[in-house]
Design brief:
heterodimer; A: alpha/beta; Ubiquitin-like (UB roll); Fe-only Hydrogenase (Larger Subunit), Chain L, domain 3; five-stranded mixed β-sheet; four-stranded parallel β-sheet; 18 helices; 22 strands; 33% helix; globular; B: alpha+beta; Glutaredoxin; 2 domains; four-stranded mixed β-sheet; 7 helices
Amino acid sequence: METVKLIIDNKEVEVAKGTTVLKAAHECGIEIPTLCYFSIDGMNIENKPGGCRVCVVEIEGRRNLAPACATDCENGMIVHTHSMRVINARRTVVELILSDHPADCLVCGKAGKCELQDLAQRLGIRAIPYQGEQSTYRKDMSPSILRDVDKCVMCRRCEMMCNRVQSVGALSAINRGFTSVVAPAFEMDLEKSPCTYCGQCVTACPTGALTEVDHTSKVIRALSDPTKTVIVQTAPAVRVALGEEFGIPAGTSVTGQMAAALRRLGFNAVFDTDFAADLTIMEEGTELLDRIGRFLKGDKTVKLPILTSCCPGWVNFFETNFTDLLDVPSTAKSPQQMFGAIAKTYYADKIGVKREDLVVVSIMPCLAKKYECQRDEFKVNDNPDVDIVLSTRELAGLIKQANIDFKNLAAEDFDTPLGESTGAGAIFGVTGGVIEAATRTAYEVFTGKKLEKVEFEAIRGLEGIRSAAIDFDGKLMVKIGIAHGLSNARKLLEDVRQGKSQFHAIEVMACPGGCIGGGGQPYSQGNNFETLKKRSAAIYAEDKGKKLRKSHENPYIKKLYEEFLGEPGGKKAHELLHTHYFDKSKKEIVID
Amino acid sequence: MAKLILSNDKIEKIKAICKSFNNEKGEVINVLHKVQGTLGYLPAEVQEVIAQELNVSLAHVYGIVTFYSFFSMTPKGEHPISICTGTACYVRGAEKVLDEFKRQLSIKVGETTPDGKFSINCLRCVGVCGLAPIVYVGDKAYGKMTPEIVKDVLAEYI
């Protein structure tokens, strides 16, 4: 490897050729402040437009200050990252940004987690010396994401996520000069754009320009209403990230404390989406085996590969971009919606509460789930199966509001019957997890033999696109594809469209890393990839810690089929647990 | 702006232009340039067709259209007036000429008269600074313009 030697802040540094000054400084422990720069190193995700000039440094022999994020190291360079000239320039840059930024930090959704606020603090800015015009835009409220573009600093991190990582293309920088901003085409509402609500723009936004639509007050209202029975479900990825909001290191499972906290908040029953994930496997696994079975018998009409359908961002993506393939994905609802459908029928009957008096709250790592629960096909007489969705961040906020000492809570269990789950349900929260869970069940059902080793290491990992062939006891090699991040999904889908795909089944998660990297997870400024790896390890540890690790062994799932649903894939199961997809490509463009 | 429906004929024209650039993603600017040359302007529907043909997002196309002042989303007049406000023309009084056009026609830069006859645009340097300030009406150039003769120039087209 060719290297270059340079001096940064009097330290001799040797780095690989092509390393930026920013990275070289970081490697030797010198943190240069940044704003528009953003990276998830292990996933080849990087934004360095060199636009904000916050990371400028002084390089001896150069007339102008240079942006560290976009300047490669050269032999013999002498760099000063915090000379008085640099400090002055950096402060001026931030003061100018602040001069066109609302100062409503007291009530901003990003307060305390805002990179611009941190920067102003770090640079010791106590007044904004520049007074001038302020840009004002209307607020754009979609079912999941709130755009408050007054707070946009044109770092274009959201634009990079939306286009390069997700290939969604909802956002672009528009206009020029003072009026430039990141927006959908024709400044239309996000709701009318091709946005999938994956929320990756929100995770990347350094300020309060992009946040989730906050539904916390709705939950408080429901919990305060004595006529309502309020139950809650928590997605698998929430428990491995929620602790971060309370200063607990990333990768710590706080399952028991979370259940305890939800009970303290006053939920009548604390359930688990992992249960519904097990249920999803029963339905999706049955569908997979049915399609493969028909295919092996020579049925040419059967659609393969089957695509998973748990991820609402992904569903929105193919309903917009792959409308010719709407009959390819599994018809199984997502675990969240399966939970809602069962809660408002089976469970409501069991406890003798009317559908209208039962409020189902979801805690999700996801923003698209907020939209998903509002879809018309998931309502009965206008009453939704899932009433309110809170993100992991919103739940943390609610726990803090209620003054619950989260760190010191004694662990508690979920309630039965909708709180019991297997390790297969737990791994839904990480890329590859759904298909691994499905494989565990499909293997045993197909071969009639017991699966000795339940871990499919070949499926695991954080590579954007992965594939594996699983030997079903010599009778069948099941070929599996996995993609996370929608631009990766797009590649696999193009193959399906062209009839080139060799897979029997493909799992897709919209967010990099799967749900652990969802748009509703705690902001992990800085080392995102390390955080993802830790959350992923925690998910697999949850699985390992479970007595039962295959969905079809869940006793409460068995009971649910016996008492209520009948057969997996049967008539009642289809009515309650399956859905269909719509062509959403013709989103009307109306400009006033 | 009301929703326009593009005629098939126009859609085919746009598609043909895209095709002449091999439907390359990187040719958005060239395609927009040529389409504007053909249709006069770039309304939303036209951008939609271009985005589809080049397989890029509509937001991306719109971003480019709104970034470059050359591109316009409103139709130009039958006789588009382009006033050079490059450095040479500017110091020779282009702004006063521009103001006089605006006053005579009661429209601003980038707008079109209600009867659709005239529109005003500014451009930067057409390379004949010896004739500064220079104005184009359609393809016809008027060199060494003064505010006083603006009325006579317009009269040629009324």
